[in-house]
Predict the structure.
Amino acid sequence: MSERERMHRKDPARTAPLRSFSNLYRRPDAANGRVTREDRATYEQADSVAGGDPLAQGVELAYRVIGRYVSEGRRTAEQFNAEPYSLLSSTDGVQQLLDMMMRLQSEMVPLWVDTMRSMLGADAPQAPYAAGLRARASTNGAAKERSAAVSIELISSRPVRVSLDLREHSETLPLVSLGLRAVDPDIPALTDITFVPADNGDGRRLRICIPDGQPSGVYSGVIVNRNTGETRGTLGVRLD
Amino acid sequence: MSEQMPIRVAVIGGGCASIAATFELTRPEHQGKYQVTVYQVGWRLGGKGASGRGPADRIEEHGFHVWFGFYENAFRLMRECYAELNRDPSKCPIADWRDAFFPAPFLGVANDSPDGSYSKLLAYVPPADGLPGDPITDYQPFSVASYFSRTAVLLRTLLLTAQSRGGAGDERKDRPGGSFEAEPNPGAGSAARPQDLAEQITRLMKYGLVASTAGLIQGLGLLQAAFTRSSPYAGETVVRLMEAMALSARRQLELALSDDADLSMLWQTVDLVITSMLGMIRFGLLTDPRGFDAINDYDFREWMKINGASERTLKSSLVRGLYDLVFAYEDGDYDRPRHAAGVALRGTLRSLFVRGSVAWKMRSGMGDIVFAPFYEVLKKRGVTFEFFHRLRNVKLADATALAPGERPYVAALEFDVQAKIKDGKEYQPLIDVGRVPCWPSKPDFSQLGGGDRLERGKWQFESHWDRRKVASKSIRVGDDFDFVVLGIGLGAIPEVCGDFIQRDQRWRDMVAHVKTIESQAFQVWMREDMEALGWPHPPISFSAFARPFETWGDMRHLIDQERWKDNPGAIAYFCSALTSAEEPAGYSDLSYPRRRHEQVRRNAIDFLDNHIGQLWPNAVRHGRGFRWELLMDPSEKRSNKNVGTGDESRFDSQFWTANVNPSDRYVLSVPGSPKYRISPLDNTYDNLTIAGDWTSCGLDSGCVESAVISGRLAAHAISSAPRLEEIVGYDHP
């Protein structure tokens, strides 16, 4: 075989791990393990509610986060009573300690959920948690509000990969990027990033301009609402 | 080329990453699409995990290896390998993976005192559900929710353990919970005496103090995070107040526990866990698209300190043991402990997800347990192994000859052929020891052309400094291979990848910033058993002990696997980083490996003479001075009465190694360096992928699991399989 017939590798879908938090709550892969009956029921319900609607998916994601945590907490709590530690029944001190741990656990859950809420945005529900989740999910999922799209205009002389993660309803807001930075503080930031109205007037266009001399690497940063300063999403650029 | 023609893959190196890639590319599901040839320097596979059988068929390793219970990818492939191998248990005693690996739940660390003495802190880690490599049934095990949940369980286990220590006397030995055990407690077992009851009550109070303080600090931390996020400016005063409260609580607790070694250890563990979780929230790691990589510019201790861990915790043997575990000392210098915080945190959290046992030991040498089975399976699948091939150069295609838009690619691979096999046959690398296929410590010269001459000339096929060869070979893209998996160690890259380093800034950065170090190890075979030597405890994996050999593995389980005239009573392995030489060894410095080998011998003798008595009091005379007559020479019988008291020259009959070959160097994750790693998925070079624990593979630390993940990624880069979602833990924050 001659060298001209050399084989080529396919371009990979990605070249780095998905480190983002939201990815942790994606559906487990069938090839990666069995799905429990409880989980399957959750998926089926979520599927029927969420469909392909981004808003409903976002709400479902938030519910999965919180629901799963509550479920884990409950499971942990059950273990307190289920495991046959002989010392537990015989020592008052330990029983008191377990009570304290249970209180700690119960206090941690609301704190944790509050923290999660601030991270995920206002769509995630507040405590009380488990009982109210399904109803709110259905309500929000039924809204079926379609968000406008964000298109991307890229000006670069080199290959670039872009990942954009925006919260729902952000497309109509006055968005601004605070610049994308590499981990190495000595590398100059990417600053020529602007949001402009899309040509067809529907949604926004994200314009990213990469200077010719920009070092290769991964750059990341947040996108905020210019008026309120609120974080609305993240933007990542990998420059080969 | 027709579509039916197999795609030829040249795999360079035979370590964990290369073998994992080969195993993936030759899975039956590919239906023979990939035809793989493995090129290996010398006579055996294994890389840093290679082992061999020496005199008396004793096992000789590069170091002390255990597999942790979170090595999901490594165990999964290993189990599949044994299943496919389908050994007959009546013909081979190591037929199944459960024969090959067994739980090693006893761990220990040494706690040093200002006077130079050490106390021992031993732990039995109870079994966890499932087995490593089982299908993952959790919704998503590597989630923050799971981490918090597991942390709560861990804290509970630790606290219950402390309680049992305070009130249960010797019952703890049979209890299923985890345990920390300091030096033997004189009062244990006599719980009925009033003074003991008072001690127990005091201890219970301290125990409650630990629990309360843990809860307080955790609660304060979470509140801080909530305040900071909801009102970054207005809450500043409150946040500072909470920080002060947490600091005060830590100090008071440490004061209260200062006279109780194992409760102090308990608190330090709790402190580490809580601080890690709070730091994750405070640094916004849960939403940062870089995940834990966002804190990789910090050293782990530095980051923990920022998040409130106490000085005592940061100086504890627990933290020191973490650094020891990964040889995290730049240039092997103990005064420069450096471990990237994100990598350390990821590894620590992954260790919360052990299955079956916290650690697993191998029933035989790592070569016999891991690489011989893989070799046999891969041979059956049609893989070709070209032993005695030393890679000299990876030649890139001339940049000026590339078509517009064409990516650079590997045009040729150039090898030194170290030996040819007689009559053009295939080299048969394995030997039989007790019906187990094993690797020998030396090549079988009788299979080599001119073997007598090579043996008389003492050809050192694995030595980087022995450049003798019988021929040169160049294989070319298109003619001989289509794709390349470069699976050699990072230390060897500068020498064989000159084209890459010359043309590519990223490769220059990688070899400049991703550090490697030399390591050292020694093994001793002793006449008396561990109890007689003064170690009454179960077989242990022990770390944070005296330098320069701070890590010890009790390997008594290997006695029956070797073939001594009279069996030894005990076998012990030691390993550590090896402090770098003053001057880098040039390629022409032929005596360098010999000098380093001698340095390790000297280190080992000094260590045995001066330190081992603190672990094995009966192995020394008058507190120090090793009893050299304990050491067994393979050429002697155990009952030999002529040994006398012996002297240190008896150590020469033992095994020690200075792992100084560039490809054997251990890769570090020093702060600021992980970002310079290159992924096996990187497609800058059209027909090349890299594999090894030195690549950007998710875990980014020097271990078997990193290497296996990297190998699976390399296979994905070529064949799109396995899917990235199947690589357990790759997509981790």
The beta strands of chain A are 150-155, 160-166, 175-177, 193-197, 204-209, 217-225, 231-239. The helical segments of chain A are 37-50, 54-82, 86-90, 92-120, 130-143.
